[in-house]
Request: fold
Amino acid sequence: MTLFLVHSLYHIFYALSIAERNNLTNVVIICATSNGDKFIKIFDSIRIKYPYKIMNIKHNDTASKLSDVDLETLDLFKKQTINELIIFNQDNMMAVYLGKFFHRKNCKVSLAQDGLKAYAPIKRNALKYKFERSIMYYNFIKSNGFEYSRFFVNLKYASYSFIDNLYLSHPHACLESNKSKIEVNLSSIILDKFSDLLFNNKIDFNKETIFFASSLLKFNVMQIEIEIKILTKLANQFNCYQKILKVHPRVSNKVYNELQKIEGWIIIKDNFPGELLINSLKSTALVFSGYSSIALFKPRKELGTIYYWLYPLYGTSIKALSWLQINKPSEDIILINSFNQLVELRKSIK
Reply:
């Protein structure tokens, strides 16, 4: 059996892509998130034929105590023979515990791609954060009666000894780890099976499209002003294109209301990953973002998808830029360094 521990819809799609790549026939996916029930309903509604089971454990990573039902579910898997455990978040309390547990049983433990973590090393020490997260882990194992094991958070990607392999879309660009790297791309075949999730949106899949992936969550005046300026310029330059703005599903109402004031954009707040929409487009797509991991997706070549990262335009408004070393995982990503370059962009697009 191959056991996946996931926390988002993207994780589920990538888990199925790994299963497809490895020709796995006995797959169990555990959704360790408060949204797990919603994810399961989505997959039940699609009814694809695939050899996997999907289950839910309502685990909030900041909470220590699991319910009796969830503990029974974990105990059930701990007693079974697991060939490989695949996790996505190396610092998630449950992922760490299960990773260490199955590693001691000589089970292979792998870390799968989650956002840009494999390609954007953290430059700060963050001692307070590491100490607090480590205390959370000890509270987690104590509250649930799990066996004691030593652990201290390390911000270096895939640095823990219990991790054997990495599943990545761009393994050559992951310079932080010397672990075994396996290339797996988000599967267009898998995404095709879930295209029905998009039918409730007013999207013309045959039209040339500008797609902007917004990472705004909380109200930040400077960041919002910059993003509105970017979106306005794109709307003016590409007025004949369909323009889709994908906002984060957890975006605050205040931010969402500000973005709604921008004319010419179809705003989508649904929970599905942006990769699903890009995969469904049948014509040219220009995909913009600050530095979104959506640029890791490799759609069908005939689509003519081009990715642009705009993070230099945000300056100090994005605090993470001061402590992340962002490396382009692909030469296909075009970096926009100034608003003048953004304005001139239209001339280079046929």
Summary: The radius of gyration is 21 Å. The first strand starts at residue 2 and ends at 6.
